[in-house]
Amino acid sequence: MPVKDILPPSFWSSVYRLTTNEPWPPTTAAGAKLLVEKCSWHGLLPLLFSEPELPPWLERARDEAKGWQRILDVRARLFHDAIVSLCAALGDEPAVLIKGADYAQRLYPSRFLRPMQDIDILVTADRIDAVCERLQDAGLVRQRVFGAARDPAYHERVFFHGRVLVEVHQSFIQRPRHRVDYDAIWRRRMPMEVGGRWVSRLDDVDALTYHALSMSIDQFHTRIIRYVDLGLLLRQRDGIALAAAERARDWQAARALYGALSLGCRLFPEFRTADVSAAMTLALPAPTRRFVERWVLPKPSEMRQITLPRRSLQLWRKACLMDTPGRRLAFALAHAVATFRGRRSE
């Protein structure tokens, strides 16, 4: 599948306007070079290197950065080999590849096109200690953590596989924040082959709903490659966005799904299909949609910034992206308890 077939027609013009605040196409060497630099942070360089048709200034700037193509190719092989090695170390332990470790294998025509920062896997809560022991026996090194992350109930444990970061999840995020039915997720998981070994991935609807949730965990201060993922997840089958809206309401993660779809449509107008519009309407009532749009979601000017917004704004968004006051209170209490337990264990 050619790269142009996985990207919306407005992709590069939208990325350029978003990241530089300049009209498309770039008309100077400096403007084109700036886009290449922005693509590096946003995880888009492999897509840029694979794009067959670009404006002249941008094509020249890309060709001047060709050395990065070799580095990214080596990095993609490094992560793929680490995933295969990780699957071998897990043996017969049930595990689900999530986020980039899943997407690079099945959503993109080449795993080179989907760079990863780390490898994420989901295991069952009752097996996480056994899984972590098995990974350490295989040579992975546990990252030292502090505070709430030391609590045994914390949602993830972090390891190093050489230079590759591996995050082992027993839940997507702290459980009190949402109402995710993990038993149902494990029943619905799908088989997946990686490097001749069989592992699992999330069901299509679960994958889309979790993707939106994972973007909201970062208050939507995310790399643009996450929106490419979103677009590809939406193309898995007809009606998937509406099904994800139902799933998000079950998980009490409707604000997260709405936010991801709204921002995706804002960046790339082609995302706004009848299915997506219906999903956004179903996810939240009109007053809540207006509140989220006006007071919670980041504006385009903020999305041009690489640095995080001020801490108070992050906390405001974190709270507002939880669906109910009860969830906010439960999360605050659970975090306080986890922090106390973690500090006591130190």
Task: Give structural attributes.
7-stranded mixed beta sheet, 346 residues, 7 strands, alpha/beta
How do the strands line up in the largest sheet?
A: 3-4-5-2-1-7-6
Order of helices and strands: HHHHHEHEHEEEHEEHHHHHHHHH
Binned, the helix content reads 40-55%
Strand content: 5-15%
Topology:
Blueprint: H1 11-20, H2 29-41, H3 45-50, H4 56-64, H5 67-90, E1 96-98, H6 100-106, E2 119-122, H7 128-137, E3 141-142, E4 156-161, E5 164-169, H8 182-188, E6 190-194, E7 197-201, H9 204-217, H10 225-234, H11 240-250, H12 254-267, H13 274-283, H14 286-295, H15 300-303, H16 311-320, H17 325-345
Parallel strand pairs: 1-7, 2-5
Antiparallel strand pairs: 1-2, 3-4, 4-5, 6-7
3D architecture notes:
The protein has 346 residues and is of the alpha/beta class. It contains 17 helices and 7 strands. It has helices at residues 11-20, 29-41, 45-50, 56-64, 67-90, 100-106, 128-137, 182-188, 204-217, 225-234, 240-250, 254-267, 274-283, 286-295, 300-303, 311-320, 325-345; strands at 96-98, 119-122, 141-142, 156-161, 164-169, 190-194, 197-201. A 7-stranded mixed sheet has the order 3-4-5-2-1-7-6. A hairpin with a 2-residue loop joins strand 4 (156-161) and strand 5. Helix 11 (240-250) runs parallel beside helix 13. The N and C termini lie far apart (51 Å). The model has no long low-confidence stretch (mean pLDDT 93).
